[in-house]
Amino acid sequence: MSDVSRPWPAEARAEARTAVVIPAAGRGVRLGPGAPKALRALNGTPMLIHAVRAMAASRAVSLVVVVAPPDGAGEVKSLLDAHALPERTDFLVVPGGDSRQESVRLGLDALPPDFGIVLVHDAARPLVPVDTVDAVIEAVRDGAPAVVPALPLADTVKEVEPATVPGEPEPVVATPVRARLRAVQTPQGFDRATLIRAHESVTEDVTDDASMVEQLGLTVMVVPGHEEAFKVTRPLDLVLAEAVLARRRLNDGF
User: Fold this and answer.
1) Is residue 154 part of a domain?
2) Residue 220: inside a domain, yes or no?
3) In whole angstroms, what is the distance from residue 226 CA to residue 203 CA?
4) What average pLDDT does range 144-152 have in this prediction?
5) Where is this site: Positions MEP for the nucleophilic attack (predicted)?
6) 44, 77, 140, 186: least CB-packed within 10 angstroms?
7) Which CATH number is 86's domain given?
8) What are the φ and ψ backbone dihedral angles of 191, each rounded to 5 degrees?
């Protein structure tokens, strides 16, 4: 077993360096044709740059690894070089794979051995406040093998039997207890050895790294998320993100 795949002792994890892996190789088809989702402009700046800055805003983050489209690593590196980023943080760009899971694994493979805490963050969540990033890191330092930020649900949720024809009525089969449900966000934080073991053990493609850790039989902890950490998936989300940035500029000079 390699050093990076051994669980870090609690006292070592409290002082462990933190890296962030941002998988940004997806096309973002729900936003329509054009550039990959992560490269779409938000207030004149690519969403990826906003997401990188959001992670680097935490003083605990020493390295951000951006996993680019397989044929676009050079373009993404040029993009990072062209924008002002915190000097205290190192940045690395690596080519991604055919799936999100493969891209995260490639990002993990690129990490130097002295990083004991790893965050995985969606490039399409460009507006995460630094307090949320810090809360995730702190929970991992306190001993949690995996941590996710999440929000309570505002709406009642129904489990249905999916229709065979899109648009047809669907019968409800259950109503989960809303108080027990959370909408999960990123960055998700991990003890590095735990995340490596999850990627080595879970073979099916998943969209959530924390669910891979759950399949190892380990407990994933939840910390409070933030309403501004929403995922930009559809055109209306871009409008909302622009509004958040406008409010930040007005209130904070952001």
Assistant:
1) no
2) yes
3) 31
4) 98
5) 178, 231
6) 44
7) 3.90.550.10
8) -65, 130
Domain that holds residue 89: 3-148+184-252
Domains of the chain: total: 1
Q: What pLDDT, on a 0 to 100 scale, did the predictor assign at position 70?
A: 87
- The answer to whether position 177 is within a domain reads no
| Token couple for 135 | 């809360």
- What is this structure's pTM? 0.90
Contacts of residue 195, defined as CB under 8 A and 6 or more positions apart, other chains included, come to 108, 118, 120, 146, 209, 212, 213
Asked, for residue 170, whether it belongs to a domain, the answer is no
